[in-house]
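Work package 3, deliverable 3.1, input record:
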Amino acid sequence: MTDLTRTMAAADVPDDLAIHNVSGNGVSRRGFLIGSAAAAATLMVGVYLPGKARAASAGMDPAFAPNAFVRVATDSTVTVIIKHIEFGQGPATGLSTLVADEMDADWSQIHAELAPANTAKYVNSLFGVQGTGGSTAMANSYSQMRKAGAAARTVLVQAAANRWQVEPGEITVSKGVIRHTASGQQTTFGEVASDAARLEVPQQPTLKTPDQFTLIGTDVPKLDSRPKSTGEQRFTQDLYPDNLVVATIVHPPRFGATVASVNDSKARKIAGVIAVRTVPMGVAVYAENTYAALRGRAAVEVQWNAANAETRSTVEMEKTYSEAAKKPGLNARNDGDVEQSLASADTVIEAEYFFPFLAHAPMETLDAVIQFKDGKVTAWAGTQIQTLDMGALAGVFGVDKANVTLYTEYAGGSFGRRAQPGGDFMAEAAMVTKALGSDRPVKLMWTRENDIQGGRYRPLAVHRLRGGIDKNGNITGWDQQIAVQSFMKGTAFESAMIKDGIDSSAVEGSRELPYAIANLRVGQHLMDNGVPTLWWRSVEHTHNAYANETFLDQLLEKAGKDPVDGRLALLGDSHPRYRGVLEEVAAMAGKAGPVPAGRERGVALHKSFNTYVAQIAEVSDNGNGEPRVNRIWCAVDCGVPVNPNVIRAQMEGGIGFGIGAVLYDAITLSDGGHVEQTNFDRYRSLRIHEMPDIEVSVIRSTEAPTGVGEPGTPPSGPAIANAWRRLTGHSVHRLPLVPVTA
Amino acid sequence: MAVNFTLNGKPVSADVDPETPLLWVIRDTFRLTGTKFGCGIAQCGACTVHLNGLTRRSCVTPVSQVGGGTVTTIEGLDGPEAKAIQDAWVDIDVPQCGFCQSGQVMSAIALLREIPKPSDENINQAMGGNICRCATYVRIRKAIHNAADTLASTAEG
């Protein structure tokens, strides 16, 4: 998603919702708190409200708000406005660190708050819309947030200088204390905030040099660890505004089917059920409480019209994709003469790879609270592309965007699922709300079955690879044909992502293969499919890296080359950052000593979203003929490491996410097109006893920082598969490694 | 018919359909939102609470089964194990998205109350029912060991 142009912005700029609305006015938001407080008084609550009250009040009296990202309260609380959604990847802490460092604030005075939808103020400069994805949060915020903090510091210092009648240059700031050493005077941000508010804010403040950083590059504690360990952290699921209606939805059992008729007589008899309504994407059930909404959902009888539905099984789809991949597709890259090189090679090996659909399955299912009252729309959701979700809300309710307020809530995971180019979930929630025809707030909550069967999967893909080795053991030819569906087509991102027929997402990581192979072709076959798909943590890097790195490993083995040295030789001298992580991870595994009996190691190297990651997996047989991943060593180069602790955490999590999918997961469609998995029982998630020990090394780079939310995932699968092949002799070309039993 | 039980140390009465899962009574009726809905079929553990001191998946527990019992949610935690676990969680920044962590914390506390110095295998057994899609498992394991060490040193001290 890094190639998205700015053209979107011009089309879709904005609704200027003043920043003070975030916590200041937020009448409804405060209403939530009051509602909760009332509940607390009459019931019991206790520990969870004070935290929320504090969170909401921080910065509610901003004495000094120099820009859209920083507010300083009279009690010296510094509230940093985070334009990127937080679902665990760390922007609340990471972006706050940039501001705090430039301000020379004390970390304990920092408070993070997620920005509402406001494209003008909070655009992602790499996308042209307000949104999070492609691991861009740090990359597109690094300068912006540092400037925001530096500007705040400059003005606070000037305010102190004016008060003391001294030169600003004589003043120092450390840990939130402003000092004039010569006169022995000192003050705090809060004490001069009101004065600062009357001064001009510099547009180009002086930034620190890296040697002056005090927080950037250190493991500052995450701001959200405490509330997320005590149950205090609020998510969309936890919103209970007064007079709430809970809604559930029944979706068609096949993609593309529509409602033919509904028998809601049983559902309506359930105590607490308010209404049943047909909406374009299914049948909504409304109730006074969640249990009634769930029972009503189970009781609704729907007849479906499958005339336009996708009815193929995944087995049939694979056959079609496989046929396509047998022929050369549209060239995404074509170096030298591949056919000639394969014809003259001493050894040619071929492999066909099958990659399944994958669900994201974030822990918090998709949900939103929406209220349409007096011509105004207010919505709360884990919105990941705010600009497009805002458009969806305005479109469904038929109001101007100026009458839509969309709050970004902390979200229980996403892995890509909440970033929707069509704003389709927000549109669904809006239609469900509108269909009730009430001014009560409506919370639409998907069940896990809605989620697992709801589409927007990582696309199914088939790769066909052929590789040639000459008599000296050199890899001379590489032909990779990728058959996959495009999820960019027909979306707002199409013009930016599809150029000359090549979907840069579909071929990402294969087109950019860094190895010196003189004859190298990557062909693309964009396949039609009625199953809606979407980016899934690391997007198409997941299957492309798997094919690249397992096939390369087989070629190197065939050529009698060491997997690390062989890769280094193919990288040559022109890829220092690839080399850096590969050499580092090899050293880490080397330090761990020889491979224990009954285990093998495999390596993989991949760059995604401009972050370089190398991993070595140590794998054994779990006793059932299935892989047990014992250890993973990981080296990552993401430029300046703003918070090494968060980077390590994202590598650990990205690896675990990758392992779970590669070992266990597939969404399959039966004959007729029904999804065969419904919940975590058959769409298996990695569990603690399946998690390897992980050691991460973060390269101390001085390059501009890049993202870490996704890049840990792609190398994990091929590293495991390479180890497994060396252990068992079995090359896995069909995922998952552990076959799914229907 | 109302179901009476003790919730976080206080007597409560829930006038709901007795088949209502405890999860929705906790959340919808009593507005204690730390306990989460994740799957509805006791597969993910996000809804884990303590019922009479033992972990229980509240999403599949009809409230009628709780009558007269004692329920503790993450909001009602108390005692040295709870403090040690939650401090350990914060100390090494276990949570990522955080949505499963209430359930993880509840399971971990129950483990330490039963086995003060758990082995890795004990941890696998006790925590295997709690899914974390962010895969924070490396840190969950470490935090449990750290909390056990803290409790041991406190006891010695």
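Chain A has 21 helices and 27 strands.
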